[in-house]
Amino acid sequence: MRRLIPIALLLMSLPVSARTLGSLEFTDCELAQPGTGATVRAQCATLEVPEDPAKPEGGKISLKVALAASRAAEPAPDPVIYFAGGPGQSATESYASIAGGFSRLRDKRHLVLMDQRGTGGSNRLACQFPDAFDASQLPTPELQVQLARDCLDSLDADVSQYTTTVAASDVEALRQALGAPQLNLYGGSYGTRMAQEYARQHPDAVRSIILDGVVPPELVLGSEHAINLEAALKQILAQCSGQAACKQAFGDPLATLHGLLDQARDAPTMVAMRDPVSHAAREMQLDEGTVALIARLFAYAPETAALLPLLMDEAAKGRPQSLLAQAALVFDSLTGQINHGMQLSVICAEDAPRMQARPQDQDLVLGDSLVNVTLNQCSVWPKGPVSGQFHQPLVTDTPTLLLSGEFDPVTPPRYAEQVLASLGKARHLVGKGQGHILLARGCTPRLAAEFVDKLDPVGLDAKCLDPLGSTPFFIDYNGATP
């Protein structure tokens, strides 16, 4: 009798496919996004670089590189490289959520992802918070400093070598290892800072630039989060007041939000609920920080912004379980996606020296807490190198496409206009009703691919973006009105 071999064993015995680009050998891998079930297939390699570029014979770190291969039989020699946001986000871990935005770019070019040093698979600088620590509650200033010290003590790294300026040298090492004559840069959010710094340091190595959710080099990152969020929430929630069904259901959602913040500040309340993932019994505190963070993060995308009036109204009426369930999902997800040690290495060197708390922010939804936390933690965090022109506008004739969402709560369109002023061959596109990061929205993937192909930002026919708009507000848990 013939023995049947299980198909799983046959698959395990097949050779792993490999691809060589320059001096890097890529083998099959899977890229997963922490806190979600999203995964994509890719090919992975490692690149070894000095931890301190000024000491090339010193200690080395390995950087994780991934390749989303082009569908072309003969891909163009200049790949697209993706710079993730944060700071502190991993390119390979965040790729699954934005992969569709790169689909048309891959028709002719490889897409390369490299975890910036300190993130993902590149000597991750992650802070392990105590088990009892509740990320939804703002710790005391003393505890903020102690958490930074504890994180620093736990890391086996020279954390001063994890700034944007140092990371730009890794990108150049990657380009040379790939054997690519030039790179096409895509940066999202903080990744736009990374793209601009690399373009400043290595202008001849850059063929094109896409900046999505633009951070001007002059900006002190984090200093305007409160005023930007306030402006976005006013725009978003004003739409509810302008729609009959939404206004009838919720009245003035912005006033409800501020009232809920006052209520949560004056009388924080422990709420019994079910964990939204495990359904196990769980308690969460409804406090000012929880309400503010949900308002901020839900403003990032039109789909989640559409839930804000309903969630705030329910919580204000004594039914906060839905808001807290969403908060639990957000908190648990962010814990795995942002590497706080790398974030501190970037912000403490590049922004904290020019950062000041703004007393006028105290009455806003976000308040001044983020600035104060940053300054407290940076008081004990080592500061690394920052290039001399780092905070100067990028002046270049390299073809550049800038992308913004109309209601972006963190990098509003005015930031892109500021960067546009010093660019010689560039164009700024704004997605109506959209939030943070435009690449995967509507026809933007096609426009991005056409731009990289033809290098003519002004010649793009962007009328296809006109149908974009806000997501209808949820009137109840069944959704919007028909």
Layout of secondary structure:
Blueprint: H1 7-13, E1 18-21, E2 24-32, E3 39-50, E4 60-68, E5 80-83, H2 91-94, E6 111-114, H3 141-154, H4 164-178, E7 183-188, H5 190-201, E8 206-212, H6 225-241, H7 244-250, H8 253-266, E9 269-274, E10 281-286, H9 288-298, H10 302-305, H11 308-316, H12 321-337, H13 340-350, H14 369-378, E11 400-405, H15 413-420, E12 426-431, H16 444-454
Parallel strand pairs: 5-6, 5-7, 7-8, 8-11, 11-12
Antiparallel strand pairs: 1-2, 2-3, 3-4, 4-6, 9-10
Helix pairs in contact: 3-14, 4-5, 8-9, 8-11, 9-12, 13-14
What attributes characterize this protein structure?
482 residues, alpha/beta, 10-stranded mixed β-sheet, two-stranded antiparallel ribbon, 16 helices, disordered N terminus
Q: What can you tell me about this protein's structure?
A:
Helices cover 35% and strands 16% of the residues. It is α/β, with parallel strands linked by helices. A ten-stranded mixed β-sheet has the order 1-2-3-4-6-5-7-8-11-12, with helices on both faces. It has a two-stranded antiparallel sheet with strand order 9-10.
Q: Order of strands side by side in the largest beta sheet?
A: 1-2-3-4-6-5-7-8-11-12
Helix-strand pattern:
HEEEEEHEHHEHEHHHEEHHHHHHEHEH
Morphology: globular
Chain-averaged pLDDT: 92
Q: Roughly how many Å is the radius of gyration?
A: 23 Å
